[in-house]
Amino acid sequence: MGTRQFIHLSIAHHRVWLWILAIVITVGSAVYQRLTGPTHPVRGKVNLAGQRISFRLLRNEIVDKELAIVLEVPDTTITGHVKYRRYKSRDDWSNIPLQRKGDQLKGSLPHQPAAGKLIYFVILDKGETTISLTGDKPVIIRYRGDVPAWIFLPHVLIMFIAMLLSNRAGLEALDSQGRPYRYMIWTIVLFIAGGFILGPLMQKYAFGAYWTGFPLGTDLTDNKTLFAMVGWILAWFMNRRGREGRGWIVLAAVLMLAIYLIPHSLLGSELDYTKMPQ
């Protein structure tokens, strides 16, 4: 093998490892964001009078659906109810009994308008023993409009690819012989498409507004999208006309990764029932 062939092979091998590393970082951050998000179901197990009961409580539902609560509880001597009220309201607590259907206890909570939230506890009883599935910490569920698949699926795919290319650009910029510019440009293009075209369309279908971040509101998802975009635009500006601003690309990639790790929908759109007509 000649020297030139060896160099080309080494470069190709190096690039493969950079892609693998970028994929690992992207997938890992996506999984972390999903599992720590405020719309991810609350899961756990409790012991009631010596019996182990597993549960999965939803924190996200469509506006025209009632929230379904289903528990596997074969012991027919165990009963339960759901204690709930609207989030950010002056409502009194309401109680809905869980109905037994074979080995299951079932209940439902009333649907709410888009961005409306309910706060609830699921409580089980056996004799004189009473237990809340989540202890003193309530579950908060947010309702949203139904987003069409033709918007949702491309948005998720494009944002994932944009994040992958962002990580790849940052890794490429760390290599003094690397060429991160093309990855930077594609990151910006895809991020605009996913975050500033499809993203607002999703927001409109889900919560009735195209944009609720700065300067119109405080929605964290919109604001972090804007903040990440500013980072990449600054990196592009510092690399235009042949200038070498690798550090700005690394900074933009790190900034986007840090922002991406913030759980999705955290501090998202929500109704304040205290400011609405009763």
Secondary structure layout plus pairing:
Blueprint lengths: L2 H34 L5 E7 L2 E7 L2 E3 L4 E6 L6 E8 L7 E4 L1 E3 L2 E6 L7 E10 L2 E4 L6 E6 L4 H26 L6 H27 L12 H18 L8 H15 L18
Parallel strand pairs: 3-11
Antiparallel strand pairs: 1-2, 4-8, 5-6, 5-9, 7-8, 9-10, 9-11
Helix pairs in contact: 1-2, 2-3, 2-5, 3-4, 4-5
* Helix fraction by DSSP (H/I, runs of at least 4): 40-55%
Q: Determine Rg (CA atoms, Å).
A: 24 Å
Assembly type: single chain
Secondary structure class reads: alpha+beta
Classify the beta-strand content into a percent band: 15-25%
Number of helices: 5
What does the average pLDDT come to?
A: 86
What's a quick, concise take on this entry?
By secondary structure, the chain is an alpha+beta fold.
Provide an overview of this structure.
The longest helix has 34 residues. The chain folds into two domains: 161 residues; 103 residues, Immunoglobulins (Immunoglobulin-like). The strands form three sheets. Strands 3, 5, 6, 9, 10 and 11 form a six-stranded mixed beta sheet that branches. Strands 4-8-7 form a three-stranded antiparallel beta sheet, with no helix packed on it. It has 278 residues and is α+β, with helices and mostly antiparallel strands.
